[in-house]
Automatic annotation (TrEMBL):
Class of this enzyme: lyase
Localisation per UniProt entry: Cell membrane
Gene designation: mltG
Topological type in the membrane: Single-pass membrane protein
Enzyme Commission designation: 4.2.2.29
Protein name according to UniProt: Endolytic murein transglycosylase
Length: 335
């Protein structure tokens, strides 16, 4: 009986050891839960395994730093310094494989620039997001010599790259310079413009096309009207009639106005198309694809005038008399 009891104790001891080993292995290899969490983790140079484990614990990537340290030591992993994107759903093995190989992820930030924003509005938007210094961004636009084939000939332009900072959603690395961001936007413009420029049906050159597109961008509210409005302005250009676009005057005002005053349209500036014939010296905003397409291929009509309705659409007229009649009807609520 004593021998049998001794054997039973041995069996129980062995089973206990096996059970504990299996449980320990499960703990070491188990995936962190319950909620998946992705974070950026910075591992400085010469950080000890203990401190790495503590960093991962603080970031919510692991729960038990001592088990992680044990796993690293048992498997002889070497952790490299760097910036990593890690998830709480990763097992110890997956974490160590990433940290050992030095797969580094840079932090990024996304921002969106709406169609029709001016360079100043873009600078303010990016500054408010903490991405750029507003003044430095605008200085770069005018003072930095970009290798960019679109250049305005006039010296009277407010911002040399107005019209070419393409409105879109961008994802950039944190810490990119003002110049880097401008280059990204210029490259995006070239990508879009080069893909559609074959649609051009006018005699305008590329610069003139972009300027016209910027005016269309500010004047049109409905996409289907953009080619019609572009056609109206082209008709006026071809007939030597002043464009009389409120958008070009608003560009030189210090703040936005829903309705221009008579004093506004008397401002002496090459951007004032109420005073001077032809296109302004530069774009008056940064147009989107639809406005660029409209300027490349305007709709052919004999319209010379248009007036806005309350819903943002327009009524087009062929003669000044028709235009005045339409204005009167709108004012009286008959249209």
């Amino acid at each position: 009986m004593k021998v049998r009891n001794k054997n039973v104790r041995v069996y129980i001891f062995i089973i206990s050891i096996i059970t504990m080993s299996v449980l320990l292995l499960a703990i070491l290899l188990k995936i962190q839960k319950p909620k998946t969490k992705e974070v950026y983790v910075e591992i400085p140079q010469n950080t000890s395994v203990k401190n790495v484990a503590m960093i991962l614990k603080e970031k919510g990537i692991i729960k038990n730093p001592y088990l992680f340290m044990l796993y690293v030591k048992i498997n002889n992993y070497k952790i490299a310094a760097g910036s990593y994107k890690l998830s709480s759903s990763m097992s110890y093995k997956e974490l160590c494989e990433v940290l050992q190989k030095g797969v580094v992820f840079k932090k990024t930030i996304r921002f969106t620039i709406p169609e029709g924003f001016t360079c100043v509005q873009i600078a303010k938007r990016l500054s408010s997001l903490g991405i750029v210094d507003e003044k430095k961004f605008l200085d770069e636009i005018n003072n930095c010599d970009f290798d960019f084939r679109f250049k305005y000939s006039s010296k009277n332009v407010k911002y040399k790259l107005e019209g070419f900072l393409y409105p879109d959603t961008y994802e950039i690395y944190v810490g990119e310079s003002e110049k880097d961001i401008i280059i990204r936007m210029l490259n995006r413009f070239l990508e879009i413009y080069n893909s559609i420029k074959h649609k051009k049906t006018t005699q305008l050159d590329d610069i003139q096309t972009v300027i016209l597109a910027s005016i269309v961008e500010k004047e049109a509210k409905k996409d289907f009207e953009r080619p019609i409005i572009a056609g109206v302005f082209l008709n006026r250009l071809n007939q030597g009639i002043k464009l009389e676009s409120c958008a070009t005057v608003e560009y030189i005002l210090p703040f936005h106005k829903e309705v221009l005053s008579y004093e506004d349209i008397k401002i002496k500036s090459p951007y004032n198309t109420y005073l001077y014939k032809g296109l302004p010296p530069s774009a008056v905003c940064n147009p989107g694809k639809e406005s660029l397409l409209a300027a490349l291929d305007p709709q052919k009509t004999d319209y010379l005038f248009f007036v806005a309705k309350k819903d943002g659409s327009h009524i087009f007229s062929r003669t000044y008399e028709e235009h005045l009649k339409t204005q009167k009807q709108l004012k009286e609520g008959k249209k």
